[in-house]
Amino acid sequence: MWRRATSLSSLIFSSSRRPLRDQGAYSLKAWEFFCAEPFKGEGCLSKEKNLFITFVLGGPGSGKGTQCAKIVENFGYTHLSAGELLRQEIASNSEDGAVILDMIKEGKIVPSEMTVKLLKKEMESCDNGKFLIDGFPRNEENRIAFEQIIGAEPNSVLFFDCPEEEMIKRVLNRNEGRVDDNIDTIRKRLKVFAASHYPVIEYYSKKGKLYKIDAIGTEDEIFERVRPVFAACKGAH
Ligand SMILES: Nc1ncnc2c1ncn2[C@@H]1O[C@H](COP(=O)(O)OP(=O)(O)OP(=O)(O)O)[C@@H](O)[C@H]1O
Ligand SMILES: O=c1ccn([C@@H]2O[C@H](COP(=O)(O)O)[C@@H](O)[C@H]2O)c(=O)[nH]1
Ligand SMILES: [Mg+2]
Fold first, then answer.
1. How far apart (Å, rounded) are the C-alpha atoms in residues 155 and 237?
2. Tag placement on the chain: N or C end, fewer CB within 10 Å?
3. Which has the higher per-residue pLDDT, 81 or 22?
4. 58 CB less than 6 Å from ligand 1?
5. Contact at 8 Å (CB) between 68 and 230?
């Protein structure tokens, strides 16, 4: 169903098997998005610096963090993982941190103001205006809060498309000691993901900003599907 609703760009580039020569239209589209003037709202962060934002979306364990590390290495973006910022807030023992811990244990989505506050703080303190925002927005409320508080829309959105069984396998093998990497919480996270991500994907698809990436394969194979999205505009900003 949702495949029919994806943007032309994501349909063109959703297949890893597509030969490189077919990617001309895609490169052009990527160029247009990355080089577009970002929206500037009065008194907003986007007023103070040129922002180039990519949202990196996908289910738990779909490989967002892994691919973000490669994008940073190759294209000089600053990686902001919303989940990681929330975990740091928990570690700081703040009042918000206690609320956040309860929600993460249950796989729930933390109130938008808390997450956007943390993202904003990081974005303000960073000289680089090129951001990969990983694992956010998770629902429409998140998306709207970001646009209102930061005063910017993403230039592009990556969506890592991964089957549930693969995501479960990867998360259970992760071994990073996360409180939510257990089968009960993973099932809850997958339910929340299934119930909330589609409107966000649909929104950016309609705006022609969505790049759907097949998340099955080795990490390097997947990065070769991601690379052209960023390569098209390397050096332009
Ligand atoms: N292509 C891949 N094939 C197999 N394992 C992978 C692949 N990509 C990442 N992994 C592994 O899967 C696990 C989950 O990857 P990663 O942490 O990047 O996912 P994520 O989308 O950021 O997940 P989360 O939303 O839970 O933070 C990690 O242990 C990572 O090393
Ligand atoms: O924008 C966000 C990002 C994350 N959360 C909560 O954190 C966990 C873990 O997130 P990862 O992206 O997997 O690191 C997630 O299950 C949510 O509970 C959030 O609420 N909002
Ligand atoms: Mg992650």
1. 13
2. N
3. 81
4. yes
5. no
> CB of 64 closer than 6 A to ligand 1?
yes
58 lines ligand 2 (CB under 6 A): no
d(CA 187, CA 173): 15
Residue 37 lies in a domain: no
In 104-143 the beta strands, taken as DSSP E runs, fall at: 130-134
The pocket of ion ligand 3, defined by CB under 5 A, consists of: 65
- Total domains present in the chain: 1
Does residue 62 lie within any of the structural domains? Answer: yes
Which atom, in ligand 2's list, is nearest to the CA of 64? 12
| 6-20, 124-138, 145-159, 185-199: the lowest-pLDDT one | 6-20
Distance 115 CA to ligand 2 centre (A): 9
Report the predicted TM-score, pTM, of the whole model to 2 decimal places: 0.87
Provide the domain limits for residue 156.
Answer: 2-14+22-32+47-231
Per DSSP, what are the bridge partners of residue 78? 131
CATH at 128:
3.40.50.300
Residue 236 lies in a domain: no
Task: Using the mean position of ligand 1's atoms as its centre, give its distance from the Cα of residue 67 in Å.
Answer: 8
Residue 24 is predicted with a pLDDT of 31
Distance between Cα 22 and ligand 3 center (Å)? 31
HEC string of 161-184? ECCHHHHHHHHHCCCCCCCCCCHH
Q: Of all atoms in ligand 1, which is nearest to the CA of residue 218?
A: 1
Asked if residue 56 belongs to a domain, the reply is yes
Secondary structure (3-state) at 16: coil
CB distance 57 to ligand 2 below 6 Å: no
